[in-house]
Amino acid sequence: ERDAIAAVAALRAQLGAEPLDAVLLFCDAEYDLDALGPALKAGFDCPVIGCTAAGQVGERGFQSAGILVAGLRGGVLQAQPLLIAPLSDLQAQVAVAAEAVQAATADKAGQCFALLLVDGLSTCEEYLAAALYRLIVALRKTDHKTEIPDLLKRLAEARQEAARQEGENNRYKL
User: Fold this and answer.
1) Which of 15, 20, 83, 129 has a CA 20 to 30 Å removed from the CA of 151?
2) Could you give the C-alpha distances from 150 to 95, 146, 156, 164, in angstroms and in order?
3) Please, is 128 exposed, middle or buried when counting C-beta atoms within 10 Å of its C-beta (0-12, 13-18, 19+)?
4) Is the bond leading into 81 cis (omega within 30 degrees of zero)?
5) pLDDT in tens, the chain (174 residues)
6) Pick from 60, 2, 9, 6: which is nearest to 27 by CA?
7) 151-162: string of b/e by CB count within 10 Å (b at 16+)?
8) What pLDDT score was predicted for residue 171?
9) Dihedral sign from CA coordinates of 154, 157, 159, 162
């Protein structure tokens, strides 16, 4: 088992003493995430956005183990992490996330971007990205928020139908 506290201390030292606006982090799944989370919170006074990874490209090329970080600084970036969980309740989570994004960016047109990190084993990354996009666009275009539950229901039905069709197509493949 890897020592999360020592790893974060080493990363903090590598990133230097200058203030950071945000940290992007990718780590292998061998780290104890329950220990890594508090260590990151204690080690950095800025938002840390990250996820586990099967590998990452680091200073020695492809690495299947360890932690890779990128420190973002300059004083102009304002990161607002948003955890979308649990993915098993995707309809509700998409609605909450889309409303949070809309509220955070309403008066910042042209000054924002989003970074979406999704567990690749969840098998819902494409659906999540599409649903968030459609709902955020819908929120920006309308004041009729009562239409949103129907939109989410249709997106969920479309995802279920796509999964059913994929299952049918792959039923006899080895």
Assistant:
1) 83
2) 11, 8, 10, 21
3) buried
4) no
5) 589 999 999 999 999 999 999 999 999 888 898 999 999 999 999 999 988 888 888 788 898 888 999 999 988 888 888 888 888 777 778 878 887 877 777 777 777 788 888 877 778 888 888 888 887 777 777 665 666 666 666 666 666 666 666 667 666 655
6) 2
7) bbeebeeebeee
8) 65
9) negative
Q: What are phi and psi of 88, to 5 degrees?
A: -70, -20
Length of the chain: 174
Q: Is 43 within 8 Å of 11 (Cβ atoms)?
A: yes
| Sheet arrangement for strand 22-27 | 48-52, 22-27, 67-72
φ and ψ at residue 24, rounded to 5 degrees? -95, 135
The residue behind tokens 């955020």 is 136
Conformational region of residue 92, where left means phi above 0, alpha means psi within -120 to 50, and beta covers everything else:
alpha
Quick: pLDDT tens for 62-92.
988 889 999 999 888 888 888 888 887 777 7
CB neighbour list of residue 86: distance below 8 Å, 6 or more residues apart: 93
